[in-house]
Design a protein that fits this description.
The protein contains 11 helices and 9 strands. It is α/β, with parallel strands linked by helices and 326 residues long. It has a single domain, classed as Alpha-Beta Complex (Spore Coat Polysaccharide Biosynthesis Protein SpsA, Chain A). Strands 1, 2, 3, 4, 5, 6, 7, 8 and 9 form a 9-stranded mixed sheet that branches. Pfam families: Glycos_transf_2.
């Protein structure tokens, strides 16, 4: 199984992170077919990386600014049977690609995603991960930060179970190459575009669209495909947590406008109605037994749910007004 790995980069501030990501792909037990680094409309960074990474294919984003365009550019160049995506501020465990490849013997499997663990502030620096991609330290999680909301920092959240899933998380995912012409690629109107808000969901919309067009296809989550994703200090703060939840609501409104509310909110309903209440009760119980952080986690779950719902409501209302004007 030939696997092309696409890494999207955009800023010199992640110079060491990008090198650590590439080093972790080089160290895979299942050797990659190729490593493609797509630079998002940053000619200086493109020139530097092209010189520094002679064994990788370093190209400029051929589409509009943003993560969707970068991924589409990488897919268009990929030669592999499978295209895997790794965030530019993440490192993959040595068995990452092998865990992905093991599933593609089943022709029904169109995509496989893996377990993304956070590298909190104080974790192994990116410069050290260039030499040894497996981190010795994963830093310190803020005591108030609930695991049910680890998706706000691009990581796997509590409540996600292995096996068939609706969608994969974009920074740790792989798809058969033929899935892209079938689904139509990533939508440039959804996801990170550096507009000032931490938007997302381009991979969610893509996965739902793929399964709507190919209902027999399966997407699989395998927690043996491990990566570690860096959480900078600003993203470990409560202010970012709230902003990210609000932006996720806005993004979900765009997703439901594209694929419908039934598919677009199926997983979110289960998470909100089952996983989050359990998490809040767990936090209250922890607080009652002497862990003050438990009360913070319970409160953060309530705030996170409220801000996400608020963002979704604003997004839906905005779309309706735009439709009415047109």
């Amino acid at each position: 199984m030939r696997v092309s790995v696409v890494i999207c980069a955009y800023t010199e501030q992640r110079w060491d992170d990008v090198h650590a990501a590439v080093a972790s792909v080089r160290a895979q037990r299942h050797a990659p077919e190729e490593i493609i680094v797509v630079v998002d409309h940053n000619p200086t960074l493109h020139a530097r990386l092209k010189s520094a990474l002679p064994d990788a294919t370093v190209v400029e984003n051929a589409e509009g600014r943003g993560l969707s365009g970068g991924k589409n550019t990488g897919v268009a160049l990929a030669r592999g049977d499978v295209v895997a995506f790794l965030d530019d501020d993440a490192v993959a465990a040595p068995g990452w690609l092998a865990a992905f490849a093991a599933h593609y013997g089943d022709p029904r499997v169109a995509g496989v995603g893996g377990l993304t663990l956070p590298l909190w502030p104080g974790s192994t620096p990116a410069g050290e991960l260039v030499r040894a991609p497996v981190p010795e330290s994963t830093g310190t999680r803020p005591r108030w930060f609930p695991e049910e909301f680890d998706w706000t920092v691009g990581c796997t959240y509590r409540g996600l179970e292995t096996g068939a899933v609706r969608n994969l998380m974009g920074g740790n995912a792989s798809f058969r190459r033929e899935a892209f012409p079938l689904a139509g690629g990533f939508d440039s109107g959804i996801g990170r575009t550096f507009s000032g808000r931490p938007l997302g969901c381009e991979e969610t919309e893509f996965c739902i669209r793929l399964r709507q067009r190919s209902p027999e296809s399966e997407l699989v989550y395998d927690d043996r495909a491990v990566i570690w994703h860096r959480v900078p200090p600003v993203r470990a703060r409560f202010a970012y947590f709230r902003e990210r939840c609000y932006a996720e609501g806005l993004s979900k409104a765009l997703v439901t406008a594209s694929v419908g509310t039934g598919d677009g909110l199926a997983s979110e309903r289960a998470h909100a109605l089952v996983t989050l209440p359990r998490g809040a009760l767990r936090g209250l119980r922890d607080g009652a037994t002497g862990d003050p952080g438990g009360l913070g986690r319970a409160g953060a779950i309530g705030v996170g749910l409220a801000w996400t719902a608020w963002g979704y409501g604003v997004g839906v209302a905005t779309a309706r007004r735009a439709k009415a004007r047109s």
